Amino acid sequence: MSDNLEAIELEDEGKFVFDAKYKKQLIQYGIFVGMLFLVFFILMLATLAGRESWAYGLRGQVAEVLGRSDVEINFSLGQLEAVNSPFAVSLAAFPLIEDDGQQPAGRHAVIIRIPTLFGPVPAVYLYEEGQKTATFIGFATLNGRVAGIVEANARYTQIAYWGKRIPAIFEKD
Questions:
Q1: Under a CB-based contact definition with an 8 Å cutoff, are residues 138 and 126 in contact?
Q2: CA–CA distances in Å: residue 120 to residues 23, 31, 56, 124, 140
Q3: Distance between CA atoms of 101 and 85, rounded to whole angstroms?
Q4: pTM for the full model?
Q5: Environment class of residue 20 by beta-carbon count within 10 Å: exposed (0-12), middle (13-18) or buried (19+)?
Q6: Residue 61: CB atoms within 10 Å
Q7: Which residue, 38, 60, 85, 89, is most buried by CB atoms nearer than 10 A?
C-alpha cells in the first residue's frame, strides 16, 4: 500500500493537487473576478466614449453663461484644457481665443463646482494669467430668483474663495 502512495506522489511531483471542493471554489472565484474585470472594462470604455460629449456640454454651459453676462467678451471658447490638479474632477477650463483665431489671449473661462447652501452648483469664472483673482460671471444651472439668492448667500464666502483659489490652481499647472 505504501508503494502505491509513493507512486502517486512521484507522478504528481511539481503539480498542485487540489481537493474537488477547493477546485470548485477556485473556479467560482475566478469567474467572479473575471466578471468584475469585465464590468470595470465596460465602465472605462463608457467613460472614455462619453468624455467628448461631456466636454461639449460644459463648453455649451460656459458659452451660455458668458452670453447672458454683462461682461463684454470679444473672444471665442477653445477646446477643453487639461488642468494638472486634483481639482480637475470639479473644474474645467477653456481658453479664450481672440476673434482672429490665431493668438491665445491668456484668458480662461473656468467652470467649477462650488458648494453652497443649496448643494453643489457650477459657477463660471474668467481668469486672466497673472491676475490674483478670477472674476465671477455667474452660475451655469441657476436662473432668476434662485440664482440671486444663491449668489447673495455665497458672494463673500464660496464665490470669493474660489475666485482666489483658481489662480493658485493654474499656477501649479
A1: no
A2: 50, 40, 21, 13, 11
A3: 27
A4: 0.68
A5: exposed
A6: 16
A7: 85
- Of 167 and 70, which is predicted with more confidence? 167
Residue percentage of the chain with pLDDT more than 90 = 11
Which tens digit of pLDDT belongs to each residue from 6-48?
444 445 566 666 677 888 888 999 999 999 999 999 999 988 8
CA pair distance 78, 86, nearest whole angstrom = 22
Question: How many other C-beta atoms can be found within 10 angstroms of the C-beta atom of residue 64?
Answer: 14
Residue 173 has pLDDT above 60, yes or no: no
